[in-house]
Every structure is written in structure tokens, then in C-alpha cells.
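Title: Comparing notes on inverse folding

I've been comparing how different people in this forum approach sequence design from structure. To keep things fair, I'm posting one structure and asking everyone to reply with a full sequence. Here's the target:
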């Protein structure tokens, strides 16, 4: 390598106008056949490669694109398909691939969980039932495609064997190393075939190297990557890490590969400190992640150039690659189309395309001199300064509210044992839902007309009220014990609140992938957050007026709003969380004042915010618990606080869950019901709890006997007095007939078990 090079680690799949999402959903709906679908997808994929080429990026990733998820792609590449999908070997068909992700009749979908501490969900591979074998060399396919159709030699991207196995199910610590060993010949085969095709660079993603791993595991990395390098000596391997600093710097940088990719944004300065202390190998390339791949704020080109210049004291320019800190999967595609954004804010942010421009500018500045890009630098500095000094960002009155907050002053008036007595107004095994009901095409159409000014406020409110009444009546018919109003006025659970609080701003096209074709548009927290007026009271109180059954108020929690937003980077995150919490506290008090005595404060994103390093967990969890309690603890004993979470290794945060002091916890767990039951078998939990009894991500009606089995299994470790029956998540994305049918089955199952318990008591 004779010059500084630029690189991308991954590009958003969804397209500027979510073309990828629309194409997927048309195929799932049977509107296009497989051949047409694959042709459209190919055009989208190649367009993404061309965009990066046009930006001037030197090393363009290939194979980062996916039809659903890159971890699922890796499992399919190795023929790892659970037996329940009746896989017969060979290349995994499109139908089987999507069945693993979405489920099939009689076959539950594979578990889905968060990709490290991001809001992206991956499909968890299930090891043990299938013997891994290379059934399709995906990196080779995408390399040849780009070479033949675009005339470029790109950089194939592969999830590394250690990260893949560590993120899978079906292994135990005692045989983890041997399972990794089973994959080594398969990875070696991929690399050999790439070498035969003339591939120069390969990016192997091993972000697990930034988690808390042992020295023994690092030794195995060294051994196995030595074998991989030996299998294809002419292929230059970049061992790519991100999301934090290297756990064992000296040992990782000694692994026999050609380059090490390091995150210099989310490493808290520790990668640079280790590099200064230990140096960097003279036989390796450093791929330096200096542009933030996860947040949307513009890179300060002067600071980044200064950092890179300091880096060249330890690594020569000709052994440097400039790149984002991670894949750009986590940010929207381009700022170019955001014409409605406030100009000061718009000039202070960058999305994927703009981040690649920053990478190319920094590469040029380092290689040729910063004066070569001086006009870009001057414009960058002015934009950042304008944003930082904007009065819209800084509200002294909000900052004053947080001064003097004491954790000892935040807590419920009485312990749960007393609150439980005050709240005991429901039958055994009460049934409820998590919050949202189907958002039909008509709901979305009316909302769009209202937003576009084609429907006045009165007409829109009458429509929303009609939907609420319709679903209150449906819930009465189904026989649920605790109702919800359905959230028809809401688009996204975070966006809805952000639109009503000071300090937030919203994009028009700022979509990112959450899972599968599910895309979200995260709010931008650009300034101090402040409560303006009640946000949910009107709809909730109206719903309660239609029924004698209790209706839950529905509020998104402070940590979820924080973790699912693009958060300002000029003050600590915990300060932003507490600003949000104080605003939500006023909302919760407003609901209580109007007679709403059940309020659900959802925190599905609490677990995903855990730092990769275990030594930082306690700091994060203490801050998260404080924010939740700051929002919820001012209510009376009679008011029941619920919270909802998505399942992800709850044993890691069980103590923090207890400390939240919510009266009822509901958990998304139907795909991993047995595993979560084991957590509560080993960790006593004495408050109300609902373990989701059926999977809302599957379009199939749940089986009554299966739900009964889930409930019975749960009651082996949980007291019936504390157990709630609910789906595992909201029903927003489901159809109306399947929602009604599924809930009827759930209520029937609950009544059956309730009757069993009463018979036992009488006998």
C-alpha cells in the first residue's frame, strides 16, 4: 500500500426511499415472484455499491447487503438450519431463509436479539442440530457480481467465526472452542476461493474482541487466524472491531492478519492510549475508525485530522486506512433530502453518504495536506459552532431543574408489599396486551392526510376516537381484564413523545433498519428536553370513559427514548436521560390526576444499552434505574406502574429490574420462553410479571394448548398471584383478524388455567 486509503465498513440496506423494505414486503405479500424479486434486489444492491464508488471510497464493502440480516446470512451460508424447517441440505432456499426469520406454520421463528449495544436486531443462529458445511460462498458471489457488472474489485465482508459462534445458541462454554474449530475449515474454504478469484482485501468482523473476553480466547484467535491466513496467504485480512476498545490490545494486534480495524470514537480514548504505550506492529495496516458510524453529528474535520496526524507518529501514512467507526447500517442514508430540517441543525449533521464524504476528505487531508480541503474545513467548523451556540440547544431553565437531584430522594412512597394490597382489584392471571393494536392502511392514510393538512384537527380526532371505541368494544368481546386504547394516534413509540417535547427534532427520510423490513425514524435530541403539555391524557381518558375495565396509560420510558434516538454529543448521556425523565414524570402525574391508575412505562431498550465492557455495566444500570424511578416514583400507592422489556439475557440485569421497583413487568419472551423461565427459577422475583405467551412477530395464530403449556411452565417458578397473561409485544404490525383470533386464544388459555388453579384450591 503506497498511499492513505479510504474505506467503508458497511452501507445502509434500505435505500433513500426504503426501496429495499418495499421490495421485501411486496415479495412476502405475493405481489412479485422470486425471479422479479431477486432482480429488483440486485439493482438496489448494485446501486449502493455505485454510490460508494462515486463518493471516491477506495475499499468498498461487498456482502454487507442482506435480504434480512447479515448473521442469518452467515448461518444460511453454512447450512445451519433448525430441524423444524425441514431443510434437506444444499443451498438454503429463499423460503427457508425467510421462515427462519419470520416463522412458518408449525415452526417458530428463530430468536431475535440486539446486535451488541445497538438498536439493530439479528436472528440468533441455532447450533447443534445441523453439521456446519459451506453450502454457498456468499462473499465470492458478491465479489464476482461487482467485478463483472461494475468493473470493481471490492472488499468482501464476513462475520468472523468467533463472533458468529459467541452470538449463537446451542453451545456451552466448555465446548465453545471446539465449535469454533468446526468452522475453521469452512472459513478457510471461503478464503481460498476468494484468493483464486483474485481478491486482495477481506474484512472479517470480530466485534467480540471489544467485549469482555478471556486471555485464553485471545490465544485461540491467534491460533485460528494463523490457520486462516495460511489457507489463503495472498488475501489481505483486515480483522475488524468496533463499538469499544480492544480487550487485549497487545495480543490482538499480534494476531497473524494483515490489518486491524479499530474504533477510535467509542473507545473512550483507550485504543489510542494502548497504541501509544505499546506501539503498533510494523507488518500490519491500521484501519482507523475516526468518523462516527452510529450517531449523526458532523465530524469536526480539524479535530479528526489532528488525531490522525498524531496517529502517524506511531503508524506511517502508507499503513493507514481511514474509515467510519462501524458499519453505517446504524444511520440514515443521506441528509440531502432533508429540506424541512432547521438549517442550523441540518448543517450540523451527517448521514451515511455525508460520513463517507468526511472519510474521503480526511483521507485527502492526511495524504495531501489539510489546506487541500480548506474550504470544506471552514464550512464544517462554522456549522458545528452555529449548532453548539444555538439558543434552541441550550435552555438554562431546564438545566437548573436537574441541579441537586439526589438518588435517595427518588423512590415510591411505600414498598411493593403495601402497594400490592392497595392495587388488588383484578382476577387471578389477569389478561392484557402490551399497548398497540393494528395500524391499518386506513389509520396510516388518515394520519398522513392530517399531517399534510388535508384533514382538519376535528376530523382527525373524530377518526382516532372512532378507532379507540372500536377496539374498546373488541376488547370487551374478547374478554380481556385490562384494556389499552390502541395507540392509533402514534407512529413510533419514541417519535410520538419526541414530537411533543422541547429539545427534539425529526427528519423526513431519516429511516434506519431495526429488524427485517422494520424501519424506524429515530428522533434527534439536539437540545435540552422539556415538558410542554400533556401528551397521552386525552386519548387515554376517552378510552377509560367507554368501559368499566381499567385502561392502561402508555408512556415510553426515558432510557428507551434515549437509546432509540440520535442523542446530542456535547453533554453526558445520563443528563439527557434525566431531562427526559423529568418531562415524563409530569406526564405520568397528569394521567394519575385524571383517574388513570395503571400506567405502563415501556423500557424495551434498557438491556441493549449495556456497554460491551462488563466493568461499565454498573455505572450504566445505576443511571438507567435512577432515570426510570425519577419518572415514575411520584405516584400514589394505588397507581400501578407497569413496564415492558424485550428479551435479551435478563440474567445480566435482573438486579436492575428489581431496582426499577415497577409493580408489573412484562417481557418479550415467546421465542425463548423456557430460557427466561430458568432465569426466574434461579433469581427470585416477587413483583407482578407477564412472560409473553405468544410471538407477535409471527403471522400465525398461536395454538391454545401451546399457550397453556407456557403458562403452566411459568407457574412452576412464579406465584399465580403475581403472574399476568399477555402477548410478548405490541400488536401494531399485525393484521386485525389474526390479532383478534390470537387474543381470543390467549384469553381462553388463561381462563382454562385459571379454572385449574381454582379447582386445585377448592380440593
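Reply #1:
Here's my take.
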Amino acid at each position: 500500500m503506497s498511499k492513505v486509503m479510504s474505506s467503508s465498513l458497511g452501507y445502509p440496506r434500505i435505500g433513500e426511499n426504503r426501496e429495499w423494505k418495499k421490495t421485501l414486503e411486496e415479495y412476502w405479500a405475493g405481489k412479485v415472484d422470486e425471479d422479479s424479486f431477486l432482480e429488483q434486489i440486485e439493482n438496489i444492491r448494485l446501486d449502493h455499491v455505485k454510490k460508494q464508488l462515486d463518493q471516491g471510497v477506495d475499499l468498498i464493502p461487498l456482502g454487507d447487503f442482506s435480504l434480512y440480516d447479515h448473521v442469518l446470512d452467515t448461518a444460511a451460508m453454512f447450512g445451519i438450519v433448525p430441524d423444524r424447517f425441514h431443510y434437506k441440505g444444499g443451498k438454503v432456499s429463499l423460503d427457508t431463509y425467510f421462515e427462519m426469520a419470520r416463522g412458518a406454520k408449525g415452526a417458530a421463528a428463530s430468536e431475535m436479539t440486539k446486535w451488541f449495544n445497538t438498536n439493530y436486531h439479528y436472528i440468533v443462529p441455532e447450533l447443534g442440530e445441523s453439521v456446519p458445511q459451506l453450502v454457498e460462498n456468499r462473499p465470492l458471489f458478491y465479489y464476482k457480481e461487482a467485478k463483472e457488472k461494475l468493473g470493481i474489485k471490492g472488499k468482501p465482508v464476513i462475520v468472523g467465526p468467533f463472533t458468529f459462534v459467541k452470538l449463537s445458541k446451542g453451545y456451552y462454554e466448555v465446548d465453545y472452542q471446539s465449535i469454533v474449530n468446526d468452522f475453521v475449515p469452512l472459513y478457510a474454504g471461503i478464503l481460498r476461493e476468494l484468493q483464486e478469484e483474485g481478491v486482495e482485501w477481506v474484512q472479517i468482523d470480530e466485534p467480540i474482541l471489544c467485549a469482555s473476553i478471556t486471555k485464553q480466547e485471545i490465544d485461540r484467535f491467534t491460533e485460528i487466524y494463523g490457520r486462516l491466513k495460511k489457507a489463503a496467504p495472498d488475501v489481505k485480512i483486515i480483522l475488524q472491531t468496533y463499538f469499544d476498545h480492544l480487550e487485549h490490545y497487545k495480543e490482538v494486534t499480534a494476531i497473524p492478519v494483515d490489518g486491524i480495524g479499530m474504533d477510535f470514537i467509542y473507545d473512550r480514548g483507550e485504543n489510542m492510549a494502548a497504541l501509544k504505550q505499546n506501539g503498533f506492529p510494523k507488518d500490519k495496516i491500521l484501519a482507523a475508525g475516526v468518523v462516527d458510524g452510529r450517531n449523526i453529528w458532523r465530524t469536526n474535520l480539524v479535530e479528526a485530522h489532528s488525531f490522525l496526524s498524531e496517529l502517524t507518529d506511531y503508524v506511517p501514512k502508507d499503513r493507514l486506512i481511514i474509515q467510519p467507526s462501524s458499519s453505517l447500517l446504524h444511520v440514515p442514508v443521506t441528509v440531502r433530502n432533508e429540506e424541512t430540517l432547521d438549517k442550523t441543525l441540518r448543517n450540523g449533521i451527517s448521514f451515511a453518504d455525508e460520513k463517507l464524504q468526511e472519510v474521503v476528505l480526511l483521507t485527502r487531508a492526511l495524504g495531501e495536506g489539510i489546506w487541500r480541503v480548506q474550504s470544506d474545513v471552514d464550512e464544517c467548523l462554522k456549522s458545528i459552532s452555529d449548532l453548539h451556540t444555538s439558543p434552541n440547544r441550550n435552555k438554562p431553565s431546564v438545566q437548573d431543574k436537574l441541579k441537586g437531584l439526589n438518588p435517595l430522594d427518588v423512590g415510591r412512597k411505600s414498598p411493593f408489599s403495601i402497594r400490592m394490597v392497595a392495587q388488588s382489584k383484578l382476577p387471578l392471571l389477569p389478561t392484557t396486551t402490551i399497548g398497540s393494536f393494528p395500524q391499518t392502511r386506513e389509520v396510516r392514510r388518515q394520519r398522513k392526510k392530517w399531517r399534510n393538512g388535508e384533514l382538519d384537527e376535528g376530523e382527525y380526532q373524530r377518526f382516532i376516537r372512532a378507532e379507540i371505541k372500536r377496539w374498546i368494544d373488541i376488547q370487551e368481546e374478547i374478554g380481556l381484564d385490562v384494556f389499552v386504547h390502541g395507540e392509533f394516534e402514534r407512529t413510533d413509540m419514541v417519535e410520538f413523545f419526541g414530537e411533543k417535547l422541547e429539545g427534539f427534532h425529526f427528519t423526513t427520510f431519516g429511516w434506519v433498519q431495526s429488524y427485517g423490513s422494520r424501519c424506524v425514524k429515530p428522533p434527534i435530541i439536539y437540545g435540552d428536553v422539556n415538558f410542554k403539555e400533556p401528551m397521552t391524557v386525552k386519548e387515554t381518558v376517552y378510552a377509560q370513559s367507554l368501559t368499566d375495565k381499567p385502561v392502561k396509560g402508555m408512556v415510553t420510558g426515558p432510557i428507551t427514548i434515549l437509546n432509540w434516538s440520535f442523542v446530542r454529543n456535547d453533554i453526558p448521556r445520563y443528563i439527557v436521560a434525566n431531562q427526559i425523565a423529568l418531562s415524563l414524570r409530569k406526564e405520568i402525574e397528569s394521567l394519575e390526576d385524571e383517574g388513570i391508575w395503571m400506567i405502563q412505562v415501556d423500557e424495551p431498550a434498557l438491556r441493549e444499552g449495556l456497554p460491551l465492557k462488563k466493568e461499565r455495566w454498573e455505572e450504566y444500570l445505576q443511571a438507567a434505574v435512577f432515570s426510570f424511578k425519577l419518572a415514575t416514583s411520584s405516584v400514589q400507592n394505588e397507581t400501578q406502574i407497569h413496564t415492558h422489556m424485550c428479551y435479551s439475557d435478563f440474567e445480566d440485569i435482573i438486579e436492575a429490574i428489581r431496582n426499577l421497583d415497577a409493580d408489573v413487568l412484562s417481557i418479550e419472551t415467546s421465542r425463548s420462553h423456557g430460557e427466561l423461565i430458568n432465569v426466574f427459577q434461579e433469581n427470585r422475583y416477587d413483583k407482578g410479571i407477564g412472560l409473553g405467551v405468544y410471538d407477535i412477530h409471527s403471522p400465525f395464530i398461536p395454538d391454545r394448548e401451546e399457550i397453556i403449556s407456557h403458562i403452566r411452565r411459568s407457574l412452576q417458578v412464579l406465584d399465580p398471584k403475581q403472574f399476568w397473561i399477555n402477548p410478548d409485544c405490541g400488536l401494531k404490525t399485525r393484521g386485525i383478524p389474526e390479532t383478534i383470533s390470537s387474543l381470543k386464544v390467549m384469553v381462553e388459555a388463561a381462563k382454562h388455567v385459571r379454572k385449574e388453579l381454582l379447582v386445585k384450591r377448592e380440593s
